[in-house]
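If your schedule permits, I should be very grateful for your opinion on a structural question. The matter concerns a single protein, recorded as an amino acid sequence and a row of backbone structure tokens. Could you please explain, in whatever detail you think fit, how the structure tokens follow from the sequence? I set the record out below, with my sincere thanks for your time.

——
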Amino acid sequence: MERHITCHVNFFIASSTHKGFLLTGESHFTSRSTLASMARPKPDQFLLVLFCVTSSSLCFYHGMSWQVAQEEDGMSWRLDEEDSEVDIVQTRHDPSRSCNFESGKWVYDQSYPLYDSNCPYLSTAVTCQKNGRPDSDYEKWRWQPHGCSIPRFDALKFLGKMRRKRIMLVGDSIMRNQWESLVCLVQGVIPTGHKKVNYNGPSMAFHALDFETSIEFTWAPLLVELKKGAGNKRILHLDLIEENARYWRNVDVLVFDSAHWWTHSDQWSSWDYYMEKQTVFQSMNRMVAYQKGLTTWARWIDLNLDPRKTRVIFRSMSPRHNRENGWKCYNQRQPLAFSSHQHVPESLVVLKEVLRKMSFPVYLQDITAMSALRRDGHPSVYRRAISQQARQQASGFSSDCSHWCLPGVPDIWNEMLSELL
């Protein structure tokens, strides 16, 4: 039985060529189509709906907008989700959407990890147990959001959702870190002979043959193109992307990250010059360059992908713990209980601004603050098998405090990712 609710509705109809006009009213409705029929804009216009819903003693404002397109059989109405802030209040009837994954705490859980370091798809640099790390508690922490829970990763459920689909993780070595985690979370339920991995240039793909599913990784740490120029100089083309983006076509789920290479110090920079159109720049503010590169990526997504066919998620920057005053990750055994400095990285501010301006609905998976508490989860000196004496001598700056031991923190990112899908 349908439940009727009362709405005080404000309609605002506008187009690029006509001034907007406002209609107000009150209606009883049970579906989006009923609401839409109350005010039909013309093609190339949009309908912004702000309404006050009265349910029991609760009244809240909610906003939605529809983009109208002329098709052969009439007008089509598509819910427009380009601006996540349009959804002002979430209802109590949708607990998955009311759960804020970003705010919570790390909880020790003996039932973790979900696989062990014998997973055949792990690279040596992240198999900290095999490399001699003496403690294992870093494998047993799960993220507990305030007021809700992230479901434990269910490999068969994930493969069922991804049946006959391609999911591709695009980015740097930390995204490969996450890809290895995802493959290890899944592969244990697939019999030997029913799975394989192949490599194609900058890409690698794990295939679950019975599900016709592929879990892929493609190397593109800057998203835009980095090329060799005259004199073997490395030129970062801030407005070129197709060389990398050709791998992203015909993929059902795309997960991106790009931040670390943009924030490397000059000593570790991956390029010698910037180039935009025909102009070469020897220097540029790193965050200005990052904004330009992300804008090129956003423009490609807007122009080339169909949101009815492809889901796009952008994972925020994975934090590093290689600073002074106790933040080095060597010999750390427990997560921080809380962050002593609520600092939002500048790269995250830039990313959010670029995503906000896009017409394609991209979901931001913000793992930065939660992962910042996990200074215990990095390989440190256990990125390769070395003796105890060598480890003691290498406890300084040679520690890897950027990537993550597996099993470990990226497993939780993938639990969140599975729930998002």
Q: What stands out?
A: The chain is about 20% helix and 25% strand.
